[in-house]
Amino acid sequence: MEDLNYNIKSGLFGVAIGDALGVPVEFRSRETILQKPVTDMIGYGTYNLPPGTFSDDSSMTFCLAEALTHDFDLNRIGGNFVKWYHENFWTARGEVFDIGIATREAINQISNGEQPEFAGNTDASSNGNGSLMRILPLLFYIKDLPISERYEITKKVSSITHGHIRSVISCFYYLEFSREILLGKDKFEIYQKLQTEIPGFLNSLSINPHEISLFDRLLKDDISELAEHKILSSGYVLHSLEASIWCLLTTENYKDAILKAVNLGEDTDTTAAITGGPAGLLYGFDSIPESCMEQLARKEDIEDLAERLAEKLGKK
């Protein structure tokens, strides 16, 4: 139970610190950030908000975690997203200041009575990183289930906002990587293991081979050997997944991983949030810089959420 609580705390704070570090420089180009790289928690910038303010990435992560403190229920998860968008539930400072187009459309669909599982757009053009950025808490619910169940549940939770297979595979790969971290595996060992396991599993589902081939840089190549200019950091789900794994594999501690993610530019908060979750799991809560923790909005609430989630899942 203590280990579970520690791991959940490591993951939730891992996401939130990465997110908050990236918020002030969101949308800035890599070239612009390079002139003055982010080295610690700063404030204001893009949204003119105080240091430690997390965005939709963390808010929706906490909405999912909050739902999982009860029995698993897609309606509750979708309902929490609606509460976030319309009632500022789990916002950092009482306001929603950032939301993706596909996520907003899906939340509006749920508000209008659509079942959450079918609210996310399934079009290939709707493959932003909006489900990947918030999926991490699901790991703690599915980690002991068979792979087929892990996949099916991940697919449903992604599809609340992003229903296309590309977003689903991205979330699935990310959670499988994070699960192996929980099992105590070396990050490079995990990377190689997934190159065997994931293609075999996806092929067994008769998924369009073209969609699987889009993941070749992760599933066939060694992404850690790529130069930075070949790693993209837009809001496209595949860019975000690749960037997060690249940042994990090319650094040796939590702080370096998330700062590397932020300094890639563009979708800085989300790239760093997606990197920060597994980095938190890999290096542990104690590796998160105290200077960042001190400034993070709602840290006591996040700690309480981690404890409640551990308590619920510890009884499962």
UniProtKB/TrEMBL annotation:
InterPro entries: ADP-ribosylglycohydrolase, Ribosyl_crysJ1, Ribosyl_crysJ1_sf. Pfam families: ADP_ribosyl_GH. The keyword Hydrolase applies. Keywords: Hydrolase. The keyword Oxidoreductase does not apply. PANTHER family: ADP-RIBOSYLGLYCOHYDROLASE, ADP-RIBOSYLHYDROLASE ARH3. Belongs to the ADP-ribosylglycohydrolase family. This is Crystallin. The lineage of its organism: Bacteria, Pseudomonadati, Bacteroidota, Flavobacteriia, Flavobacteriales.
